[in-house]
Fold these 2 entries.
Entry 1:
Amino acid sequence: MDFDLFVIGGGSAGVRCARIAAGHGARVGIAEQRFWGGTCVNIGCVPKKFMVFAAEYGMSAEDARGFGWDIARGAHHWPQLIAAKDKEIARLNEIYLRLLNQAGAQIFEAKARFIDAHTLDVGGERITAERIVVATGGHPVRPDIPGAELSIVSDDAFYLPALPKRVAIIGGGYIGVEFAGIFAGLGAETHLIYRQPLPLRGFDEDIRLGLADALQANGVVLHRDTTPESIAAEGEEKALALSDLSVLGTDLVFFATGRVPNVTGLGLEAAGIKVAENGAIAVNEDLATSVPHIYAIGDVTDRLNLTPVATAEGHAVADSLFGNRPRKVSLANVPTAVFSIPPIATVGITEAEAPQGARVFVTRFTPMRHNISGRPRKTLMKLIADATTDKILGIHMLGEDAPEIIQGLAVAMTAGATKADFDRTIGIHPTAAEEFVTLRTQTRIVGDEIAGA
Ligand SMILES: Cc1cc2nc3c(=O)[nH]c(=O)nc-3n(C[C@H](O)[C@H](O)[C@H](O)COP(=O)(O)OP(=O)(O)OC[C@H]3O[C@@H](n4cnc5c(N)ncnc54)[C@H](O)[C@@H]3O)c2cc1C
């Protein structure tokens, strides 16, 4: 065999797996067909957060006036932002490549596909490997409606030549919500269209309600319980017909309606690898596919599509196979963030998922900064504690710095912290975070409202 391990895909999952396995002394090859670092670095988390920063700076300029700064919010130069972002990403691409080279992995800048369970075609070259890891990620999809080809998806949003004046984003998931914050913050007339009563299905109800208010406070026009019917081009403008029979004139229609695994053309059937209906590769708890020496990690398995999960899986597979350190990745209590403006972060279960009797503590307040800036913005925090064990079951926050705060609290929760542990922790003052350790008054008990209804 040419390699002990061959990794298909140089994204978060694949690069980590190849690098660690090569570090353990395995003969490793890795193929990437497009860009090193994959979705996260090039068209996901990283550029997205730069664009969120850009939108927030405009708001900070407005807020500064309350603090005595004689500054006005000037014009934003979109091409300058995109060029700065591209420069930083090129630097990150280089780092990824260098890490792989330093670890001793052999690099192939080509598309790979299975010929059989041990043989790959990599850019026309036949390559054999003892073990193979599929880490091909996913891509966004558009709904099948007339005129869908006139729209963009998140991949395109990072390379628009100019900031559109009017944007219609379809989809109330985290990508839709984040881009609504970006476009509105940079000054575009922004509409968010989603088929649920509230954005961010699956998140805690109070957070969803708070987010809907925050989006509106930022000037985003919300179209709840609404789906798109068709798009027609009218000169430069797009006419977006909606299920409520209205027609929205806009410059850009942006579908943020979901992602599917990258499996087309991979030749999975030639290797005998089983996939679900949407293409997701089925894996067991060791991340092995239906073919025991072939593994799948990251978004291509479509379970919890987050970069830290993808890297943790890549690392675990490499350690298990070549590091003499077999281990599994737990998907329980994975903290997540939504980089809306303001952001959201959460770990553990929602109130709707909490067992009967669980104690719920909620606080909602104007962050200190905005008592002076005058910006109408609220922070919301919620703790859910088990009635019998007192263990913290869920922590939720909508507000500035939420992802930074919840990352620390996730450690406490993973370690099994109780509400009493939170109560005996001394706060850091003056912060928003200290509210999490001073939540004394119980807001409600899960199930009580139903009993009283
Ligand atoms: C807009 C957006 C924002 C996001 N924001 C966040 C965030 O804030 N936080 C977070 O944790 N996650 C975020 N994510 C999710 C995160 O990007 C993914 O979970 C992560 O990138 C998954 O890594 P992966 O390695 O599984 O796949 P990818 O990063 O997609 O990498 C797969 C790679 O495989 C390559 N490939 C595919 N097929 C082949 C082939 N046949 N041969 C060779 N190469 C191939 C692709 O070119 C790609 O580079 C975001 C995603 C998007 C789209």
Entry 2:
Amino acid sequence: MIGVDVTLADLPLRDDLVGRSPYGAPQLDVPVKINTNENPYPPSAALVADLAASVAAIAVDLNRYPDRDAVRLREQLAGYLSRSTGIELYSANVWAANGSNEILLQLLQAFAGPGRTALGFEPSYSMHPIIATGTRTEWIACPRRSDFTVDVDAAVALIAQRAPDVLFITSPNNPTGGSLPLQDIRTLVHAAPGIVVVDEAYAEFSERPSAIGLIDQFPAQLVVVRTMSKAFAFAGGRLGYLAAAPAVIDALLLVRLPYHLSMLTQAAASAALRHADDTLASVAHLVAERRRVTAALHAGGFDVIGSDANFLLFGRFSDAAASWQEYLDAGVLLRDMGITGYLRATIGTDAENDRLLEVSSRLRRTVATPTLVEQGEK
Ligand SMILES: Cc1ncc(COP(=O)(O)O)c(C=O)c1O
């Protein structure tokens, strides 16, 4: 193989990237993969057939660039959001990209970057600080309480002190699962001087109202980010989107790459949206399973953090990394987020959840104090 003698250290890498770790949830071939918060149920046969026919229909035009602004898809997404939130949204309120990670990148490219700052409540979604670093945005970590809730008064004080250009609020939060009440989000937006990104990747699993309902009050600040990777069972399709005032989308047009969303992605996502009701029927079952697994883990003596999402953070393990390996040896791939004493499990199929509970009942655990530690993720 060519080039194998060259290492990262030989390359003229930007100084601020030296020593950083890439995002890296393991992709291992084990029987129970419950480490990346996907919907365990594959697309229906009707959706697969519709998607295949849609892709075949547009394939004859693949010599042309796609609709740069993905207008029809954005109309469909606005329709879905309007139906599910009761708030009237139009295509001009919605923007789409290759996964919500790309949406987050575009937001930081437009509103953050060199000389600017972004603040988030940790532990939270690890890509927020990674994308901040990639865009040369200074990251400010505001620690959550030991029960993983946000101390809103402390947050307001830190926001006043640091005046972040971008504030991230993840609700429900990954990896801890809890949501921030709308009233607290309102308080934080009032306190924030700049853009507030509410990352609602797991909104469909929560009974709480969406922050989309607050956009009208804070049109120059609030952006709500969603994804089709979780409840929509479309992680492989890569489709993320946002709801905001049209001016926010005008800003993103300045930084997005032309034709970023391929014709294939637009057609596939449109097909997935046509079958939304069918796909989203799995959400109620996954929520019921989340309740069942929570109760069973509690009964087994585990500490389970209350979750509004399709995953659970649970412990307390005396050595979470060693327990992660024990689960893996038993064919169950969990996520070790580097939170002392805790591991995260995605709610899977009933059989996968049964297997998680079976292995859990065999593992020894002891009480440890949960604190954030600087250790690698697995
Ligand atoms: C809170 C949160 N935001 C965003 C994402 C990114 O999802 P995607 O890029 O697949 O839309 C994830 C994925 O795990 C997440 O947990």
